Each structure stands twice: as structure tokens, then as C-alpha cells.
Amino acid sequence: MAGTRIGRDPAGGDVAVTTTEQALTAAFREEAGRLAASLVRVLGDFAVAEEVVQDCLLAAWERWRVDGIPDNPAGWLWTTARRRALDVARRDSRYQAKLAILAASGCTHDAAQRDDDRLALIFTCCHPALSSETQVALTLRTVCGLSPRQIASAFLASEHAIAQRLTRARRKIAMAAIPYRVPDADHLAERLAAVLAVIYLMFNEGYLTSSGDDPQRRDLTEDAEWLAALLADLMPAEPEVLGLLALIRLHRARATTRFDREGQLVLLADQDRALWDHAAIAGAADLVVRASRMRRPGPYQLQAAIVACHAEAPAWEDTDWPQILLLYDALLDYLPSPVVALHRAIAHGQVTGPGDALADLDALGGALDSYHLFHATRAHLLRELGRLAEARRADERALGLTANPAERALLEQRLCRTSAPAEQTKPA
Amino acid sequence: MKYVLLFCGTDEDARAFAALSEVELKERYAQVGRWFAANRSRIGATQQLQGPETATSVRFGQDGAAMVTDGPFLEGKEQIGGYAEIEVSDLDEALEMAKTWPGRGSVEIRPVVTSR
């Protein structure tokens, strides 16, 4: 992107603007967090640091649209940010003491310091004293440089609500003195788990709300992958970070086949595997292996290994179910949740038959009674066992429990198909 | 940074406390004593409060008139049983202290307003 001159050709205006926006988005995401991190360290104030970053991004947006993106966009942003931070420090007596640090180029290009700053920023945004929704919004805002409007659109929330949430968060960080640093060794595991949870939540939000029909909406799965990759860069010796990065990449590598052209959900068994990104899958599988060599297993590594089993199978029939069943058994030790048990039951059924899986599910019973996939899975197993009337009732339960249009369509289709002969015998 | 730790408990916590045997009660007080001793350098004023049934509240209506009522402000789940002012470097240090509080129930950590 460096050196590209844009916006001068009226005929190609639209294309040029899109290119600029894409280039700007990439540059902003890369630089906004770095900028914010160093400024927070120097100024010790979240709100001011973010304001300065926002100013710079706005200035860059105005300027670069006219002049084109400079050869060194990072350098341009840094110089501008430093100048504005100095202005703020001169204006406000609270920052007088910081003036000297800023003037002596506190926002350095020292790569190691900047990495430390960014890592500290991530841990602050994901501090357990903030609610998980706030952690996600603040991370997107501060580390990824998304605007409140972009965050709001990704979460289908109002911009006002997101802006308020961010303001409250910054106030709490300042008032309650939430520290800005990477936790010490005693607390690192626990705090890292919170950071990974935020990235995974961000990914899931993007994954579940995407349907490929709205190209204008921010793709949070991309932001989550970027963050996980950043964290893997900053903490290369943490196997769970690699596990989460692999998990996200394995899902994203197959995202295009989740929906058909009409936006209908396509089950894994029916997806066209030729369309998957096999290079990305191989890369992610390598990450899983690299993580496993560190001999500190964890839930993200296990989930990535399970998804890798699916992604690397040339066809549904080739799926290595015994391996998947073993991995689910291990995963249950870390995440003893009924939902994990449900997935384990499905794998169990594939290994020893639908009767066993149904018995597993019925043993779970009550815990998942209001979860649509529990009933949808039961319906599938009952149908395999030839218990059609029960299957139909289970599908109807599932339909009553989900509002997701793609899932509803799939269930309705299934109900329609299985009941068609019976319905036709009735008089119209 | 100055914070106040508010030691709270639900009715259930209060019942569990009341049900402690004499030996258990002695042990609990010993634990609490050790916690205060271990954190002495960080603790300022601290008090245990009498139970919420001894509380009297003064509320001000829209017209500014004072109204006296029997009972605590918050009828309901959590009651404040005591407090300690602490001086620590940041929220993480306050959290460390609160997490080792042996008195059970819950601990609310509130930063204190300081003049700039």
C-alpha cells in the first residue's frame, strides 16, 4: 500500500476510495493499538491516549484521502500523535510531569518497548474487574482501533450505548486504579485465560452473527484472528495462545461453505470441502502440533485439535471419530459443560452407533432441555433409529427454541421432508 | 491508592456464621486476626459493625425533609458487616488482599475520592 497514489482519477473514484479505506483500515488496526499503548504508558491516562489516537486517525483520514497514503504510514501517525500528545500535556497541568518524557520521544520506535506496551494494554482491557462485554468493547476500541460506530454495528447495539460503556470503562480504570502492566508469573495463567476468553468471545460473536449477506458489517472474526496472531507473536511460548489462533483459523478457513447461495445453513457433512482454504488448514494444523510439543495441554488446543480432525478429513466419511472421541474426553476434563458432553455424545454415536449416543444424551437430559441443538441432535439420532414420531417431536421442540433464521430454515426443511408423505394423505 | 474494603454478607452467610460451633467461631476469629496482622501496614481505620437489625436510616424526600426509618438502606441481599480503609499501589494489590479475606461472605472494593 505504501506509495499508492489514489483519489485523483475521477473515473475510478469508487474503486480508489475502497482501496484507500481498505489500506486505512489495515494501517489503523496495526497502528492504533501501538499508539494507544505507548501513550497510555507515558500519560497514564486511557481517555486522553484514546482521544489523541482518534485525532490522529481522523487527521490521517482527511489527509491521506487527498495526498495518498504516505510511504511510511506508521511514521506519519507517530509523529502526529507525539505532537498532539505534547499539546495535551501543555494544556493540562496534570500532565506537566509527563512533558519531559514525551519531549524526549517517549513514544519511541523501540520495538521491544512497543511490544511490552501493547501486551500491557491488552491485559488492562481484559482485566477481570471489567465485565466481559466491556472487555470485548474496550479491546476492540483500544487495541484494534475500531470506532464506537463499528463496534456498535458488529454487536447490533446502538453507538450511544457502546460509547457510554467505553466511557464508564475508562472512568473505572482511572478511578479504581486498574494497573497497566503484564501480570506477574503467579497470576499470568489466570489472566491470560481471561484475555483468551475475550478473543474467543469476539470470534464467536462475529461467527454466529455472520451470514455473508452484509458485506458492510465489520467482520469480527477477522479482528479476533488478528488479535490472536498478535498475542501469539507477543507470547510465543504460550501453547493455549497458539491453540486459540489455530482454532480461529480452522473455522475461518471453512467459513465460506457454511451457507449456500440462498443464505441457508449447510451442515458439515454436506459442505463442499474443495472450497475450504486448505493452505490455511495445514498452517493451523502445524500450529496445533507446535503447541502440543510444549506439553501443556488446554481447552483451546484440544478444541483446535478436534476441529483440525474435521478440517483435514478429505470427506465426511473419512472423519477420524475415535480420535475425536478421545479429544472430547480430554476436553471434558477442562470444560465439564453439558454442551461439550453433547458434542462428545455425537462423536460417541459415530464410533459405536446412534443408540449409545441417544443414551448419553438422555443421561444429560434436564441440563440442556432449553437448548435447541440438544433436541435437534436427538431428532437426528431417533430418525437413524427409525423412531420417526419421536424424531418429529424432538425437531419441533428444537424449532420452538431457536430464533436464528438459518437454523429455523434447516429445521423446517427437515420437518417438511420427513412429514411430507404423511401430510399428503390428509385431505386438503 | 486509597480504597475501602466493605465486608458484606447475605442472610445465608449470616445464618452460616450463627451456626458455627464455639471452636469453629474461635478459629474464624483467629484467622481474621491473622489477616489483619499480616496486612497491618496497609490498613488504616477499620471497624466491625453491629448487625443490620440495629440500623436506623435517615432518608431525604424530594422536598428535602428528613425521614427516619428503622432498618438499613438496602433491604435485601447483602449487608455490610464491617469495613477497612487500605492504602495500596493499585486495584490488583487490593484484590489480592480481598481474595485472602477469611471472613467469607463477599468483599466490595471501593476507591476513595481524593482531591487532585
Task: Describe the structure in your own words.
The complex is a heterodimer of chains A (428) and B (116). Chain A has helices spanning 13-43, 46-67, 73-91, 96-103, 111-125, 132-142, 148-154, 159-175, 185-209, 220-234, 239-252, 278-292, 299-312, 321-334, 338-352, 354-364, 372-384, 388-401, 405-425. By secondary structure, chain A is mostly helical. Among the domains of chain A are: 1-109, no CATH class; 348-418. Chain A is elongated. Mean pLDDT of chain A is 85; it is low at 1-16 and 420-428. By secondary structure, chain B is α+β, with helices and mostly antiparallel strands. Chain B has one domain (2-111): Alpha-Beta Plaits (2-Layer Sandwich), CATH 3.30.70. Helix content of chain B is 29%, strand content 35%. Chain B has helices spanning 11-18, 22-38, 91-99; strands at residues 2-10, 43-48, 56-60, 66-70, 78-87, 106-111. The longest helix of chain B has 17 residues, at 22-38. Chain B is flat. Chain A binds chain B through residues 94, 127, 129, 175-179, 183, 187, and chain B through 1, 3, 89-92, 95, 109, 111, 116.
Short summary:
The complex is a heterodimer of chains A (428) and B (116). Chain A is mainly α.
Give the DSSP E fraction of chain B (strand runs of 2 or more residues): 35-45%
Number of helices of chain A: 19
Q: How far from one another are the termini of chain B?
A: 12 Å
Q: What gap, in angstroms, lies between the N and C termini of chain A? A: 64 Å
Element string of chain B (H = helix, E = strand): EHHEEEEHE
How would you sum up the global shape of chain B? flat
Apparent shape of chain A: elongated
Helical residues, percent of chain B: 25-40%
CATH superfamily of chain B: Dimeric alpha+beta barrel
Let me know the average pLDDT of chain A. Answer: 85
**In order across it, which strands form the biggest sheet of chain B?**
2-5-1-6
How many structural domains does the protein architecture of chain B include?
1
Report the structural category of chain A.
Answer: mainly alpha
Q: Count of helices of chain B?
A: 3
